[in-house]
Design brief:
It comes from Rhizoctonia solani. By secondary structure, the chain is mainly alpha-helical. 46% of the residues lie in helices and 2% in strands.
């Protein structure tokens, strides 16, 4: 029950919590809990004396997921009680990274539609609570949604992120920011040169064993925007 329904709290994503305030029954948070519960089944299965607990966890996870799909409208809501449909269900990435394939394809189908329809000039906002987009969460979500549908891994999916790396609205920055306004491209204060931009390699992490090396593609642009575009080119080198 604590996984499916949680009390009012601030999400770990600081820029959402500070702007929107605490909320109960957030769709992403609930799914993280259910995925964690399902992963316990894999941990307990090899342990003979834990087999009964494993069965309980599996039943609870499956039952919880069925309720979650209904309450969140296939994960399209920020909270169960929200009517807005604009947010990234980045918790899907944990399911794919762990190899559980716990969340059904029907949820992924709805999320592909939602991500595409929510895309602004420079990215897809993390939630419907504000206009902030993050590099890492966009890549987490895209990686999960392309794991079972490689056709989604195309230029149009990355168009907004590519627009951002090319535009470089804040020319004084020397490193890619991880959080910015999806419409204006203006960086959030203090969000440059942080380790979370490593999330751009989320797609490659799901292809472990398939990708041996990553060859960056050079750019002829001499300005700072060209330097920022290298991050997009790393991803494109895998795509092609």
């Amino acid at each position: 029950d604590n996984a499916l329904f949680h009390s009012t709290q601030v999400t770990g994503d600081w820029f959402v919590g500070d702007t929107a305030g605490p909320a109960a029954n957030m769709t992403n948070v609930a799914l993280k809990g259910l995925i964690a519960l399902r992963s316990m089944v894999e941990i307990q299965n090899p342990l003979i004396d834990r087999s009964s607990e494993s069965s309980k966890c599996l039943n609870a996870a499956n039952s919880g997921l069925e309720q979650w799909i209904r309450l969140s409208d296939y994960g399209t809501k920020f909270t169960y009680q929200s009517n807005a449909k604009n947010h990234l269900l980045h918790a899907l990435y944990a399911d794919k990274l762990l190899g559980l394939n716990f969340v059904p394809e029907s949820v992924h189908e709805r999320q592909r539609i939602q991500l595409t329809s929510s895309m602004k000039r420079y990215g897809v906002p993390l939630t419907d609570q504000n206009n902030f987009a993050t590099i890492a969460h966009q890549y987490f979500t895209i990686a999960a949604l392309t794991a079972s549908n490689s056709s989604f891994l195309g230029n149009s999916t990355f168009r907004a992120i590519k627009n951002y790396t090319e535009a470089l609205i804040n020319p004084n920055l020397t490193a890619l920011v991880d959080t910015y306004d999806a419409t204006t491209g203006v960086a959030a204060a203090g969000s440059a040169a942080r380790g979370s931009v490593g999330g751009v390699f989320a797609i490659l992490a799901l292809r472990k064993g398939e990708v041996k090396t990553i060859q960056p593609i050079g750019t002829s642009s001499a300005n700072s925007a060209g330097k920022m575009d290298e991050l997009w080119l790393y991803t494109r080198s895998y795509m092609h």
